[in-house]
């Protein structure tokens, strides 16, 4: 039944994303509002944020065990469904990418930058000094956003239930929305910790969903590495994609007459790779359920 709940929540969340509805970042910011005031010199404390996220997660884990022990597990499914819809989702990205690729196709790089600027981390916006760098930065952020809003939640939901999924997604939200900047840097290390294993699993999935031989040549080198989650995903995706979809310089060298179509082709290739990867995950979860493991 948990698989059915996840599948229904995923389908509804994708529908809401396509309509650019239900962006829940505001909920996280309101939850973390208490972190705005802190004692001078203690701006880097992480325990208040971890408590705000960890306590509800712990209650969900305990509630799940109690309902299972009482054979009333079905009562928890509506709560899990609602929470999964809240935890997942990348609303607005489809509209931004469509506007971005149209501007790129017209050769309007300033317009392309305008459409995706707010979707990029502030600390990296200065890196987009060329169209090629801008596109790679956008691709990294898109891969990371879909991973953190879908695959990370799915992984920890399957491994530990809704409490673990809430904790993992909450740490990502703390990294992005906690009021104290000094603490965000420490939350970033926590986010890398909860993302390490699922990001490597997704990188392996890229190989199955794309060019397996290409992924075996270069993508597998990231599996046991200590590089960041974003770097793991971009290397894995690049190695699994054909046609230099994430190598704009090489694409321009081989196809100089089609440079205006590069952004559109690249975005479609990355999006299709992610969709196929999620399909593989869903099939794998279904097989685990059939086998009685989940």
Q: Which consecutive residue ranges, at least 5 long each, have pLDDT under 50?
A: none
Total DSSP E strands: 0
Percent helix among the residues?
over 70%
Q: What class would the helix/strand composition place it in?
A: mainly alpha
Tell me the number of structural domains.
1
Distance between the ends = 10 Å
Shape: globular
Report the average pLDDT across residues: 87
Question: What can be said about this structure in brief?
Answer:
Helices cover 71% and strands 0% of the residues. By secondary structure, the chain is mainly α. Keywords: Kinase, Membrane, Transferase, Transmembrane, Transmembrane helix.
Structural description of this entry:
This protein is mainly α. It has one domain. Helices cover 71% and strands 0% of the residues. It contains 13 helices and no strands. The protein has helices at residues 2-18, 25-31, 47-69, 77-87, 93-105, 109-116, 131-160, 162-177, 181-209, 212-218, 229-240, 248-254, 262-290. It is globular. The model has no long low-confidence stretch (mean pLDDT 87).
